[in-house]
């Protein structure tokens, strides 16, 4: 749990359980999801512990806060550049590979980004996942 | 101030001032920005009034909460689909036209969105604006 050490936070069993829940997690959980999952093991743990641990990890760049529209904050332990496919109905978030590129030519041709030094792009694709498409039709 | 009527909130002078501040605003202000700007006119107005008005407008789909990484919530009165150019240093946010398209072919070829019904895409381009590029070099 190197990440926890980097934040300067004490390695309590609760915090280690939060880290364990996040490690390799592809579900993009909210603080509430993590609290629900871990609290049965630690009945005395407060929601604030989960929330503050997540905020601290985020402030140290060790997890990412997901930037999807509205609703609860979601967290991603994968801090590499990648994009997301978001189901507006069931709120499932799926990672998309970074290879997806913008038509940069269109951008530069339009002149809108002249002089702007691009560091990264983040693409959110909103829609209905296959399961929700079926139940909506 | 038709928007305010739609939320069912009373048209108080404070709320009208918040709406006036947002109308056509391209600066993507935070709740704090709006409070700072309006409170000299209404010294008794609380920050909660600004915050709750914004949340209410957002819940009614009348303004958008911006989904940029980290930091304070920012708000956009332009609810149409459009993208953003975000300076990571000065936090300036500039609207980009919706014409910017993804290379959808790359997406479908990769098979990652098979069965996913795309409703909208939202692209955030992070980097340094021309002014911050100059001061950083």
Account of the 3D structure:
The structure is a homodimer of 137-residue chains. In chain A, 37% of the residues lie in helices and 18% in strands. By secondary structure, chain A is α+β, with helices and mostly antiparallel strands. The first copy, chain A, folds into two domains: 2-75, Winged helix-like DNA-binding domain superfamily/Winged helix DNA-binding domain (Arc Repressor Mutant, subunit A, Orthogonal Bundle); 80-136, Ferric-uptake regulator, C-terminal dimerisarion domain (Dna Ligase, domain 1). In chain A, helix 2 crosses helix 3 and helix 3 (31-38) packs across helix 4 (47-59). The termini of chain A are far apart. The model of chain A has no long low-confidence stretch (mean pLDDT 82). At the A-B interface, strand 1, helix 5 and strand 5 of A face helix 5 and strand 5 of B.
Topology readout:
The structure is a homodimer of 137-residue chains.
Chain A: H1 2-7, H2 13-22, H3 31-38, H4 47-59, E1 64-65, E2 75-76, E3 83-87, E4 93-96, H5 104-110, E5 117-128, H6 130-136
Parallel strand pairs in A: 3-5
Antiparallel strand pairs in A: 1-2, 3-4
Structure summary:
In chain A, 37% of the residues lie in helices and 18% in strands. Chain A is of the alpha+beta class and 137 residues long. Chain A folds into two domains: 2-75, Winged helix-like DNA-binding domain superfamily/Winged helix DNA-binding domain (Arc Repressor Mutant, subunit A, Orthogonal Bundle), CATH 1.10.10.10; 80-136, Ferric-uptake regulator, C-terminal dimerisarion domain (Dna Ligase, domain 1, 2-Layer Sandwich), CATH 3.30.1490.190.
